[in-house]
## 1
Amino acid sequence: MKSVIKHIFQRLCSKILLLLAVSFLTFWLMHATPGNFFDSLRLNPQIAQDTVDRYEKLYHLKDPFFSQYIHWVINALHGEWGYSLYYNVPVSHILGSRLYNTFILSMTSLLLTWSLAIPLGIWAALRRNQWVDRVLSLFSFAALATPGFYLAVLLLYAASRLGTLPLGGMHSPNYDDMSIVGKIGDTALHLVIPAVVLSLASIASLQRIMRGNMLGVLRQQHILAARAKGLPEGVVIYRHALRNAFNPLVTLLGYEFAALLSGAALIEIVCSWPGLGSLLLTAVRSKDVYLVMSSTLLASVLLIIGNMMADILLTWVDPRIRYDNQN
């Protein structure tokens, strides 16, 4: 246990340096591109130049590059993420709601992925080389080869023709007038297209992995011995084989969560889902420096948490793994 805690502490220390590198690169890219947020204000004849200069001085936007970056880092360490110039509110007020929306989409996709991929993988393994296995293989290859944003556009077009699902967003216009059950149902309907698109490639990949693991376990000697003893096939499959086949997949849970968070950005933009991805696009287009910095840093932290979850699950599932100097 001590070795695991020591390993996690060492990983966290290295991730702090990674976060600093990501933040510095993002800050440099925002300054390397031409223009800034106040360029559009200068073109507005109703806004005085003195007002623009005062705002630039207030947010240290006229300071040298390194001075601006150090100022932002010090404020971030004190919990001050800066002020969004585009939304005219503190950045922390925006990130909270957007993070919640991204979390809902990612968790829905994660539950959908695992609840479908595991049974389909078992079914394909038990029906090896039969029509079920061939159909699932074709589905997996097609899902992995289809870009997510293209599939999202196709589903949105189909929904517009059929009129069965909402065309983007998270809530309907009359959301505030609905009951609690109505609000849950309305959000669920808006989740269908982005969650399905985000889950499809993961379902295909995880299903193929589960199929391969199950086939490998079914060939092992203890499974042959259990069948030779006359145990029912259901007991052999679901009590003995499934546990050994499923254990390696637990380690993928953390990485899957991190991959969903990173892959959700593009789907959020296409489906107009109000999450971190669409927020980051708006911030970049408007040159809202502090909002871009905070959004990128928060997304990086979520990815690191997902990877750390994978490491912890790996030691929990497989006790043979030790993080010490002897191994």
## 2
Amino acid sequence: MPAPIVTEVAYLLQIEPGPAVEAAFLDALSRGELIVEATTAQDFARMADLVRQYADFPLGTADASVIATAERLDATRVATIDHRHFRAVRPGSPCPLPRLRIAARGLTR
């Protein structure tokens, strides 16, 4: 999970379903059940490129961080509930697939 996403996920969980689930998410992070990937200078540069390229959406920092991190890690799947943005964005190399496979509310296996 890209570091910029942690705050967004926590915020969304706080709104619905509520603080108990938000706390459970934070507990999972503290136990290492979810890995937080640090954002690199390369990621920030790619994120800026993506935000500029998809300004008409707009594609924000959070979504751009997922794409940039997925590209850097050669990930072919992301977990998202935001299908509109992720279906439209074409990852750059080194991502091996023309599009990232998307799983709603969790990774597919």
